[in-house]
Specification:
alpha/beta; 8 helices; 7-stranded mixed beta sheet; Spore Coat Polysaccharide Biosynthesis Protein SpsA, Chain A; single chain; 9 strands; about 40% helix; about 15% strand
Length: about 240
């Protein structure tokens, strides 16, 4: 199951659904739409009506990335298909669906969590200014330093979770709403003793639609790491 959260992604939704299913024809995709006023949800509904591999989960309002994914995780675990792995990825092509297969292969080879990483050898970012690159890399460096773990791309949003991880983690206790959610989920997985590997991806800047990043989201991530360090034990390997 591939979860794709959306808010005002009408420019991308058809193309990303096509690309995901072309890369992984046997996959299912769930669009988690936060009541997009631009009609993204209705476009996804039309696609779902024509293809049983596509699903749409409508949420009443925009609440942030974390709540959208948590809703999607719970929904996926409840489905009769019994999905063995659940992906999260963006709708704007910053996450290339071509990586779904290699990431799934690493999960099937034994990794509990596979992270599409920009900062491991072979990974990178295209189209960003030096300032934006510095902020992104600095954010991951700051988070892993405070938390004392070795994951290079803690803020990455292209992730594959083995079903068991989502069944074991206390999803109701995850508090982060923005990109701090990505840090929190990875840290909680490590604290629970699950294995995590990083798979190199190249992250291009979006070419259509608008970024959802804001100063508030950045600040939430910065404070979330101290809350996690204060309230959770260190992972077994540290």
């Amino acid at each position: 199951m591939v979860l794709v959260p959306t808010y005002n992604e009408r420019e991308n939704i058809d193309a990303i659904l096509d690309a995901i299913l072309e890369a992984q024809p046997s996959a299912h995709v769930a669009v988690i739409d936060d009541a997009s006023p631009d009609g993204t949800g209705a476009m996804a509904d039309a696609r779902a009506a024509a293809d049983p591999r596509i699903h749409v989960v409508h949420r009443a309002r925009k609440e942030g990335l974390g709540p959208a994914y948590l809703h999607g995780f719970r929904w996926a675990l409840q489905q009769p298909a019994g999905y063995t792995h659940v992906f999260e990825m963006d709708a704007d092509f910053s996450h290339d669906p071509a990586h779904l297969g290699p990431m799934l292969a690493k999960a099937r080879a034994g990794a509990d969590v596979v992270v599409g990483s920009r900062w491991v050898p072979g990974g990178g970012i295209e189209g960003w200014s030096h300032v934006r690159l510095g902020i992104s890399y600095g954010g991951s460096f700051y988070a892993r330093t405070v938390l004392g773990i070795g994951v290079l791309d803690l803020t990455a949003g292209f992730v594959c979770y083995r079903r068991r991880v989502l069944e074991v983690l206390p999803l109701s206790e995850v508090r982060s709403r923005g990109y701090g959610f990505q840090i929190e989920m990875k840290y909680r997985a490590l604290v629970a003793g699950f294995s995590l590997v990083e798979h190199p991806i190249v992250f291009p800047d979006r070419v259509r639609g608008e970024s959802k990043m804001s100063l508030r989201i950045v600040l939430e991530g910065a404070t979330a790491v101290w809350r996690l360090r204060r309230t959770l034990p260190r992972p077994p390997s540290t």
